[in-house]
Amino acid sequence: MSMSIQKFIFSLVATLFSILYILFFYYHFAQQEKTAEAILRAINSQMLETSYHLSKEIKSINDVASLRAMLDRIASNGDFIDSIFIHDEDEILISTDPFRRKTISTNLIFSSGLSAYDKLEQIEAIEEDVRFYEGKKATVLKLTFVLDKDEISLYFSERKSKFLLYFGLAPIFIFIFLWFLLRGFIAKPLERLRQFAYYQSEIPKAFKLRELETIRYSMVQTFQRLENEKKELYDMARTDMLSGLANRNALEEYAHRLIANSSRERKEFAFLFVDLDNFKDINDSLGHNVGDELLKKISSMISEALRSNDFVARVGGDEFVVIVEKYHSIMELTAIVERIQNYLEQTWIIQTHPISVGSSIGIAFYPKDGRDLISLMKNSDIAMYEAKNRGRGRYHFFTEELNKRVQDSISLDKNMRKALENDEYQLHYQPKIDIKSGTIVGAEALIRWVSPTQGSIAPDVFISLAEENGFINELGWWVLQDAIRQHTLWKNKGIDISISINVSAKQLLGDNFIDQFKKLLDDNEVDPGKIDIEITEYLFLQHSEENSKILHELHDYGVKISLDDFGTGYSSLSYLKRFPIDNLKIDKAFIDDYDSKRGSIFVDTIVKMGQTLNMKVIAEGVEHKEQVEYLSKIGCDQYQGYYFSRALNADDFETLFLEQSH
Ligand SMILES: Nc1nc2c(ncn2[C@@H]2O[C@H](COP(=O)(O)O[C@H]3[C@@H](O)[C@H](n4cnc5c(=O)[nH]c(N)nc54)O[C@@H]3COP(=O)(O)O)[C@@H](O)[C@H]2O)c(=O)[nH]1
């Protein structure tokens, strides 16, 4: 049976005090007996002495009466003697107690079985013979000492009280003091140490007892050591010893956590299975030492190719898993994949051996290609084998459809960039018509890619990819330069119309856009008021502080700002309030629907709202006469659309402009 430290200390102290109390009581009774013996002895010797004196003094029975004074003195001096009397067989001859008439039985004094204290308690008197000679006749009288019972019990009860006071109460106080002392210095600290050892709760503060303090300090040290060892073991269990990368255990933990989060937040992530090409040959031909060293280098290279929030684990000899969570598009992901492959595609010098090793990468996506680690591993592995089958040093997606899409995007990306070098882009211009006068007041520059192999490619096909991969900055800059060039050319020919240029959010927010744009206008002596920058609502979604600053700067410079495709995307009236917008372009979808009840209300409302906010309102995608009539009726400012003209190349636009202005 176990007990708490507090209980143990309490029992220990209590047992100690019980023993002490037993000893004290034994001592008390022994003392009491000794005292009783001493009292009895004193009374006895007083008695013997008195009897001896009386024997000498008394010569005849008549002398007894003369002894009164002596007896009174002895009775009053004797502490425990109540009275003294002398009697013969029949009657009391003399007594210090005037009321004493009878003798008292005194035989108990000789009863041997009783303790001295009991004798004192029980006997009332003791007596002694007084012998004397009247002539030759021996006479025996009895001398009796009557004991003062009250005095005796008062004496013993006083002694008892003192004993209780000294030996009874004092230990109780000592007991309480000891209890608090032991509890405070031993029981509580030990209990705190126990709790610390058991729960590893907060480290107890230093104790005042040296031994306990040593134990506490040792425990703290032990726990710290254990904590470090635990951490080391934890890390070891999750680290690949050769490469220092995460191992399969760590991958399992990471993937489970990520899958749970991604499923909750409905997000996808990419799971890459990386396998080195020809690694087995290197191992077999140059030995495992070289292979190991190569693996170490490759591992650190893969880590270097990744961003801090990507995850990499070595899951087999030359197999790695990379998890990429944050990417905006497949193209951004493929850029990461290509970076890994490019980093690994170098010649490594290992123990003087030049070694080249490529990699094949299979890519699967959570949740599309697998909802758990096993299926993601399996499917990315299948994709990796497909990459190897197709000639190594490649990457391959698990689904063929995605594979095709990515391959198409990659070749589009390549061709799109080449097209700029080969001067395959052209700007077409769609007239903007003033509704009241019916004349051309401007032109929207729209890019066209005229490929020698594929013919005219619409901007819808490549603009979004150019925005995704950042090529829009280069392409957009070409558009601006070409539009300004054309504007200057027309101005010199007397065609002084404003030009609207589509500028993507990425381009607008790119480095130095404002400075370069202003320089372009200044260099060509272009009136900024003749240039209209078309932006979409998408711009307002991000970096709104920065956007606002750029738009205000452009506006202050004199450039007009048009909000394109109004009403289709992320429309919020607060944009119209916060940003300096000159023109509102109603999206074609609203214009198409102008003849329905709701549709007409929308168009009408947008026109009124725009004009109330001092904006010009331009209808897009106008294809029919009725639409123009309706727009005219509701007071819309301008329109553009196939009804008047499609976007034309610069020459055709010029012809049309000159035709309609005459
Ligand atoms: N960042 C840049 N974006 C550009 C540039 N050039 C074009 N674009 C954007 O590409 C999208 C598609 O443009 P496009 O194929 O040229 O189509 C434009 C018009 O041809 C078309 N349109 C005009 N009128 C009609 C019509 O009556 N019917 C009909 N079906 N289509 C018509 O609309 C497009 C103009 O759209 P918008 O820009 O919204 O005014 C398009 O989003 C362009 O913005 C560029 O140089 N840079």
UniProtKB/TrEMBL annotation:
InterPro entries: Biofilm_reg_signaling (IPR052155), EAL_dom (IPR001633), EAL_sf (IPR035919), GGDEF_dom (IPR000160), Nucleotide_cyclase (IPR029787), Rev_trsase/Diguanyl_cyclase (IPR043128). Residues 409-661 form the EAL domain. The chain crosses the membrane at residues 6-27, 163-182. This is EAL domain-containing protein. Coiled coil: none annotated. One of its GO terms (molecular function) is cyclic-guanylate-specific phosphodiesterase activity. GO terms for biological process: cellular response to nitric oxide. Pfam families: EAL, GGDEF. The keyword Membrane applies. The keyword Transmembrane helix applies. Keywords: Membrane, Transmembrane, Transmembrane helix.
